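User:
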Amino acid sequence: MDDFRDPNQPRDAEGVAISNINTTTDVLETVSGHQSIPPASLHDLEVQDGPGVGETSSLRRRRQILIVISATLLTFTGCGLNFAFGVYQELYEGMGGPFEGVSPAEIDLIGTLSVSLMTIGAPFASAWTKTYSPRTVTIFGGVLYAVANIAASFGQRLWHFILTQGLLLGCATCLTYIPAVTVSPGWFDSRRGLAMGIILSGTGLGGVAWAPLLRYLNATIGFRNGLRASGAIAFVLIIPSAWILKWETAADQQRLREAQGRRRTGFSIPRANWSIIRSRAFVAHATGAFLQAAAYYTPVYFFSSYATTLGYSATAGANFIALSNACNFGGKISLGYLADRYGRLNALVGCTLISMMGTFALWLPSSISIGQASQRGLFIAFACIYGLNASAYVSLFPTALAEQFGIQNFASINGLLYMIRGIGTMVGTPAAGALIRGSGANSSSSFERTILMVGVFLVGATLAVTWARVENGLQAGWKWRA
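Assistant: Predicted structure:
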């Protein structure tokens, strides 16, 4: 297997060992002499929390803070609004007009398409971020976000909403989310887990904040004006955030070096790093990403409807989504901090394992007729534990990739792995909905097959990320903190 990050021996871009490494002084001399930085120096410059070339500690710290604020606002706005589609799902199911005679499954296609495209388009969004700049790609995403919502407000048929609120909004979210999670890890090293936890906690915070705001807008100015207003608000939040987003200095040097001699086209096709893709570690991460994504959104999407089978009102059932998003917010930050202390790959294995155990030990028993009070208690515990741990996978995933394959290779593989997650979402959520509808969806037991499916997916994901952890030990030498 290829050795991507031998801690004791630096290597050049072709994987050849280098015996002599330029010191920081040499690198500074190279830059001052207007020469490109040789690949060997990237290991030295590899994105520490300390200052890089031409930076003071205080300047770098300010830039790190601005990057965290910018990326958090992007996940809060793009992903948060996307994850609040349940508000529209509930509204569209109860109204006529464009949705007269339309089944809930057809309406669900709008939200599923949007969430899936958020990561399915990742290889292209990541490639464009390298070819042009994070700012350019994200600004385009912000404009598309406004266009998608405003265009949806004029929809008169179901397919109008699938095209605008599904397809276009999914592409817009991809162009704001992927640059944020591609650029941000490079700004941190020792605190990368905490930083990404804070950034991706924006998805949970957004879910808590946007859902009540959308309900308020729909109730006061109508859903069409509400769509226009949410598109305008998103645009106002995304554009300033995009202006701040930029590559870390060493990563930008590497990006420019790779771009030399490459023909620049508007439809830049991502270049895969086949030496990594053919490795067992990559296959392990790809398998885990697909299976975890196939399971991840199902409980969140069906929290409200499942709660009603336990005797909760529709309003109380919707509060479980808010509870899960609140745990999502706290889990990503706290587990990101713990990952920096005890190992990012270890944390990835742990949160996937606990998600799986919670599904079988709490959610599955809650679907059995053991008394409503006991069922409710188990379900509340599951909502909290799942929100804390399953969501943390999303923030730990990029940090684990950077840990295992090296930050210098991160941008070349994360797009493909995020696309695999998007495909998993598109497979898992519709399958869960079909199983529930096939069982009648009028009692907690009708969710039993869906719960088992989620549990099986999470068993597979746990085994896959454990495999990735073992491969890391074989590759770099076994150590407990990894």
